[in-house]
Amino acid sequence: MKGITYVFGNPAPLNGAGQKALNDKFNVDYKVEKVPQENFVEKLTAVVAGGETPDMIGFRPNDLTLFQKWAKQGAFLPIDDAIINKYPSLKAVPQEVWDQFKVNGKIYGIPSWAPIEGNSFMIRKDWLDNLGLKVPTSYEELKQVAIAFTKNDPDKNGKQDTYGLAMGQNINPDFAMGPYWQAGTWYHKDKDGNFIPGIMSQGRKELVQFFADLNKEKAITPDFAVLNWADTNAQFYSGKAGVFLVAPRGMSQAYMEGLLKLNPGAEFAVLAPFKQPDGNQGFTAGTGYARFNALNAKLAKDPEKLAKVLEMHDFSRNFYPAAQQNAANKDFDFFYGGEGTGYKMENGKRVMLKPQEGLDPSVYFQDNTSWVPAGTDPEFDKAYTEPKLIQVTKDLMALNGQMKHFYPPNYGVISETETTKGAELQTFMMNEQTKMIVGQRPISDWGALVEEYLKRGGAQIIKEMNEGIKERGYKDLVWK
């Protein structure tokens, strides 16, 4: 039994103790080739061209075009209800996520978990309190708060050295408080009923106007057009800006600790999505996957082998809440190489002892990403020890639990023109919209900008994307 997938960094040694433990537990001879991600497609295509397609192939999210091409050629086994309903970690996958791996009406990919929960923005609550302001619930309120943060000395240091929104090049973060305003979300439709990309929508125009208004008041980062992401972060975490991005996971505790060292009294509130002009309110759902796997079509002729592959795959996707991450949970203990050998527990957290030696079986499975069932707390806050970072994470997750989520129609749909021209078009639109924000091009030119976008390839992208959307059976906006 063989598999192939990708890794970031160096793969585990070929025959580590974890590999032997895996094979002993499942009574198999199973090996997965883990290729550094930058060389993955080159290696994968060479292996397949050589006629030795593995039993399982793990793809990166940006490999959808290759995956769909091979699926259409019959390379992969359809994942039907009989398979899905037999394995808990597959049954837990929402239909909206499965739909992204449909080719000609059949599912061919098995997603690895990623959160559907949406990002938002955190605001300096202590600054609001100092100025007697409330947490904003609309763009008009946010505009007034941002201007007040710029002009009214919210940190009470006697200097006019603060401003509202921390933003960097490519209008990032986008401060979109719902899918109506998001650049990458196909929420709007044109006069013919076709979904269109947010980057050319009415919602995006309104957002660009919002930024232009703030730019005139010096209420956004003054040099945002040339500011990289690290320096954009620094605007907020050095105490200069009052509003910035917050995500369910992946926040930097070091950044937050740096801010609190400078401003020990800093407090934060998380902004809820704003009510949209169409009456909807909520987050844009994430794709729900970080990578995905496909099964060799030949496994259909070997049911026993297929069952073993799926048994192992399902096991490796078990979710262990923090309370179960200890040696008392035998599956957890095995997966990470045994307490005292593969890992140790420090302050309630697992610490790998010698990760470079391959002592833990987890690194030898095709997929080792836990699938968090719907309604289960993924415990993102457990990644942190700083109380205020823990709190903003909990507040964001609570909002996600209270609000609806929009599932974009473009998820899982490939446009050949987007693949070849999308990056160039995105750069063009970002540059022109940046000019509008700083006053180098009037926003009254929006209609002309949209026409330029369409002529440069946007019209063909819209045509191809809508063909794919219709093929998937997506008809109208899906909020859940």
UniProtKB/TrEMBL annotation:
CDD domains in alphabetical order: PBP2_AlgQ_like_1
Entry annotated with the keyword Calcium: no
Record flagged with keyword Endoplasmic reticulum: no
Keywords: Signal
InterPro entries xref list: Bact_solute-bd_prot1 (IPR050490)
Protein name: ABC transporter substrate-binding protein
Species of the source: Paenibacillus contaminans
